[in-house]
Amino acid sequence: LDILILEAISNLKEPAGSDRAAIAAYIEDQYWAPPNLKKLLSAKLKHLIANGKLIKVKHRYRIPPNSKYSEGRKGASRPLLEGSKRSSPRAERREVKIFTKSQIDEELSRMRTMTAQEAAAAAAKAVAEAEAAIAEAEEAAREAEAAEAEAEAAQVFAQAAMKSPVQRWHQNDRSSNHGRDSKSRVK
Questions:
Q1: Cα–Cα distance measured from residue 129 to residue 137, given in angstroms and rounded to the nearest whole number
Q2: All domains in the chain, ordered by first residue
Q3: Which one of 2, 8, 67, 119 is separated from 38 by 20 to 30 angstroms, measured CA to CA?
């Protein structure tokens, strides 16, 4: 859905940006959209803004000028569910040191002989490392939530795309006949 949103904004080429209704209309015109498109679109737009892939100004969405999508959609022939590898801060993570018992004993004896200033500096360093680990865990959780939302959207689009044209025609025909039947009963 991210790619479709970026494609819509890129192809609509509105100088002030595209509003949510225009983006939804573009996707509905170009692709078979699921019934909950508006809800999915709202969530994905927020996600794209949070990741810096879109800019929102006065209820309109634009692609930032420095984005790879600003000159048009890249990889237009990619299938909907085909993913791309993302670089992650987790991939650049430091190696975790595993200490032996003798190394731990040595570190403890060093701590016992520390001055108050050295202990404060060591504590500050430990707090900073813990905060960095917490921030990394929070980022990983955000990435997981975003990936889950993207997977759900992709699944909905895939299911919608798998419906045969005959099923869609029958579904549309039934809903339009249902409307006529209820009107004829009122008379």
A1: 12
A2: 1-81 (1.10.10.10), 94-137 (no CATH)
A3: 67
C-alpha 84/C-alpha 147 separation (Å) is: 12
pLDDT, tens digit (0-9, with 9 covering 90-100), for 24-74:
999 888 887 788 888 889 889 998 888 888 989 898 999 888 766 554 444
Q: Decide if 10 contacts 74 (C-beta within 8 A).
A: no
Name the pTM for this structure: 0.39
Taking only the tens place, the pLDDT of each residue in 74-124 is 444 334 433 433 444 444 455 556 778 888 888 888 888 888 888 888 888
